[in-house]
Amino acid sequence: MLRFKSLGSGSSGNATVVEATGIAPSRVLVDCGLGLKHLLYRLGEAGLQPEDIHAVFITHEHGDHIGCARSLALRYRIPVWMSHGTHAAIGAPDFDGLLHIARDSKAIELGGLQLTPFTVPHDAREPLQLSCSDGSAKLGILTDLGHATTHVMSHLMACDALMLECNHDTDMLARSSYPPFLKRRVGGQYGHLSNAAAVEIARTLVHGRFRHLVAAHLSAQNNRPALVQALMAETLGCGADDIVVAGPDTGTPWLSL
Hints:
Blueprint: E1 2-8, E2 15-20, E3 26-30, H1 36-45, E4 55-57, H2 63-66, H3 69-76, E5 80-82, H4 84-89, E6 99-101, E7 108-110, E8 113-119, E9 128-133, E10 138-142, H5 150-156, E11 161-165, H6 170-175, H7 180-187, H8 195-205, E12 212-216, H9 225-236, E13 243-245, E14 255-256
Parallel strand pairs: 3-4, 4-5, 5-6, 10-11, 11-12, 12-13
Antiparallel strand pairs: 1-2, 1-14, 2-3, 7-8, 8-9, 9-10
Helix pairs in contact: 8-9
């Protein structure tokens, strides 16, 4: 069985645990965008210790994603995967033999988990997002991109669950106090997904046996959870409560596939 839990999602920090359950579970922590103390606390709330994490996958170099990755890895001897571009963007620090280079479309085998990174259009050096499978179920993680390319969509077909960026409402962003350059960045082709763009992605990817849609990376200033839930529920023909929102402080409960 595959299960996953966001430990927190938003501009203040992102981290998600994905686990293939079984006699010998395999667990990956996708992003570490929190301080080490906060990350350990949230792992504890999830019933985990850092020793329970078998690998860390970093999507890109922005602080709300890379956070304490190096400190966590070195203290607890956890292997880390990231792209060459991401490693270069953070100054190519030494990981004491724990660093592995992730590449577009090249699968990573981690016990009972198979991770498949794929490139996305975002204003980072070499950003990657991820699909995760235990051979029976498939989870897609898609945050921090300005638009969904054909390449992105091809990697997310047949997902049973999707953690999907719903960063901003276009009108709220336009009316916000953000300076013009930031509005252009966030709403641009290499920025973040709007609610409308996320709805179109969900419309394409959700199918009959789909289990969970998690709205992630919501802007605290330019979006509202209830707005996202209502839009997604209308699109997918479900109840608003069926759409899980990953909060910045609470993340999500464990969700199973």
